[in-house]
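Board notes (copied after class):
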Amino acid sequence: MKELLFRLNWNPADIDEVIIGNVAQPAECGKFPRVIALKAGIPKQCLRIRCIEIVPLVWNL
């Protein structure tokens, strides 16, 4: 994410929401999307952890 922001010449402070999805949460790294965003310089107040299960959404299509 840090490299993406650098390449796009975006200021991390201008980001107001980060959405990162994953299929399976690694046991050794809880909340890794939060860690990725924080290491990229995204302000803490922009990070809200939401957990949804996608399978019921897909089956209902």
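Comment from the instructor: The chain has a mean pLDDT of 76. The chain has three helices and no strands.
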